[in-house]
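Morning F.,

Quick status update on the modeling queue. The single chain you submitted on Monday has been processed. Sequence for confirmation:
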Amino acid sequence: MKVSQLWSYPVKSMLGNRVNSVNLTLLGIESDRQWAIRDLELGGIRGAKKIGALMQFAAERDGDAVRITCPDGSVVSSTADDVSDVLSGALGRRVVLESLPDATNLDHFRRGPGDGGDMMEELRRVFGRDVDEPLPDFSVFPAEVMEFESPPGTHHDCFPLMVMTESAMEALRAAVPESAVDERRFRPSMVIDDAPAGHPEFGWKGRSARIGWATVEFLDPCPRCVMVTRRISDELPEDRAILRHIVRDLDQCVGVYARVMTPGVVNVGDALEFL
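Structure tokens below.
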């Protein structure tokens, strides 16, 4: 097996871009999700679970800054004085773009208030579940995400890495042939080629592997939420059929979480070798 894709996501929940090489640190891909959106109306850092339109924006590093392309094609830099005003106008709500602070700044990471109303209804909206569908097993998530939007020191939802296989993508396309299945819906950190057919990464839990100069430990399969249904573009419209298949046939998961055990550089084409 070998690495076929590596992804960089400079801004939480915005589209990222494919890269040829990454530096893995103990917190994941270096500079990954360095920026995030704070909702000034509801409070707290918010991703596309709550602000779905964020997945129609694209972010790419530009030196120490980030170039953000809005859905209408306009571009704004993270260094622009009016960047938050531009994003607020494009999103139709007051937001501010914030850079990742030190892990000790707990107020930055603390969850904002709920949307009000019934908690179970809100959870179903966040995870995109129909009323007769189960919610994920919350025990697979780190305990701190109950209090914080992301583990302090990161803007990751849960864990530093999410790994998928090309086999999983092929299996999804075969299962929902009328849907536009694309890796951008699933936001992988890396994609592995030449794996067995189906969803082989579901069996990697508890195993460690060398990838390039780094070693990683695979954790639980990744429960999927409403983000995989979001509109990205005309070619990738809103689609709930993909999530229905994932919930019904894949025990709610696609891909597998991982954490970095030994930092190092990983390149496209590097082998994945289990230890």
